[in-house]
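S.,

Sequence below, as promised.
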Amino acid sequence: MSNKVQVIFTFELVSSERKEVQGGVEIMDGISVSVKSQGLSNVDKGGPQHAYALILKHNAPNIIRFLTDEVKVSAGKFGFEINTRSEEITETPDNIH
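The prediction came back faster than expected:
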């Protein structure tokens, strides 16, 4: 039994556009998020660390939505307005993109 499992969230800036608009600047950034796991392939022999990792991986879309909401709130405190949208969530056996 492995005593180590990992759930890795990777955030990548994939595009960035800056446009002058009346009264300011509009910036559109495209962020890609992928969630990968390591050490979960043999869960039937796993321990509590596997349970934690599986719960984290299973809830990854909600965690990403929560983080997005937190970014909006933080930006609002500095006077910025952030609009977001999700393009797609693709799940493979060990990964979420």
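The chain has two helices and three strands.

Coffee later?
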